[in-house]
Amino acid sequence: MNAADKQWYLLYCKPRQELRAQQQLANQGYGSFLPQITQQKLRGNKWLQSTEPMFPRYLFLHLPVGQELNISAIRATRGISDFVRFGAQLARVPAALIQLLTEQQIQLKQQPQDTSLKKGDEISIVNGPFSGLQAVFSSADGDKRSSILISMLGQWVEAAVDNSQIAVKNNTGG
């Protein structure tokens, strides 16, 4: 059965209960989709990978066409607050959007993220205005940025860049 053969609905979950709600729905025989994203977070001067819902408190529910929707059973599910509604109408989500989110999640998982940068590590700048240049990691500058040193015209210049713009330099060879 493909995505076009399903009706997709949007559920609103209790705070930090998305995974619990998804498991409870599966126990009842319902399918769901919870897009997640893995991000780098700075905790106590150490970078850690944290996987979190892409849309906190929201969960996509699907039903095969023709299956009856038991609203009260779903609303009573642990972790679920209610259906997202527009007036009295339940919010339906186009199957094309679910397909797009699924593809995006797969692409994000295929992009390796190295979170073990230490001061002095050689890095490559993979995109942005300094793309292609080699640099040295200096320090973390919040959750999403880093301070780096770039060699320009024989001098070290400090710059702040988004973490998505840098990668650990591969040191292969002798």
From TrEMBL:
GO terms for biological process: DNA-templated transcription elongation; transcription antitermination. The keyword Cell wall biogenesis/degradation does not apply. Gene3D superfamilies: NusG, N-terminal domain. This is Transcription/translation regulatory transformer protein RfaH. Residues 5-105 form the NusG-like N-terminal domain. InterPro entries: NGN-like_dom (IPR006645), NGN_dom_sf (IPR036735), NusG-like (IPR043425), Transcription_antiterm_RfaH (IPR010215), Translation_prot_SH3-like_sf (IPR008991). Keywords: Transcription, Transcription antitermination, Transcription regulation. It comes from the Bacteria. GO terms for cellular component: cytosol. NCBIfam families: PRK09014.1, RfaH. PANTHER family: RHO-INTERACTING TRANSCRIPTION TERMINATION FACTOR NUSG, TRANSCRIPTION ANTITERMINATION PROTEIN RFAH. Pfam families: NusG.
